Fold:
Amino acid sequence: MSDTENSTTKPKTYDGFDDGERAAMKERAQELKAASKRGARSAKADGERDVLAKIAEMPDSDRAIAERLHAIIKAVAPELSPKTWYGMPAYAKDGKVLCFFQSSHKFKTRYSTFGFNDVAALDDGTMWPTAFALTTLTPADEARISELLKKAAAENPD
Structure:
């Protein structure tokens, strides 16, 4: 194939971020701006309100999972502070996001995700899961999430 033939083929384009990703980045910028205006005393109460508002916006199937996760996190790791993170419900310890819920609707995926950031310190050998796909929550799932939360909240070094 010659250079001339290559130049007549459809050029490769980079579309950049999709609408969901751009929206998440805008939400994160708004979260940071709002946090800078809040005092430390109101951060946890405001974070709780913000998380509950985000959960309320979700479609029924995602909302049911997010509400249950919120209840589990509050029961198992009450020291974690609810906050929004890129427009998603998240839970932080000492200001650092430990875990988060990503609605399937937000990025138009076939499943929701419950994930842990590196500060969760869930290390287990040389490879371990940091995010879990969720389509529903079973009692076994809830028990596993509770175990991981206890470990993450206890072992968070910061």
Observations:
- Strands lie at 81-85, 88-93, 96-102, 112-116, 131-134.
- The mean pLDDT is 85.
- The helical segments are 3-8, 19-37, 40-57, 60-76, 139-155.
- The two ends are 57 Å apart (CA to CA).
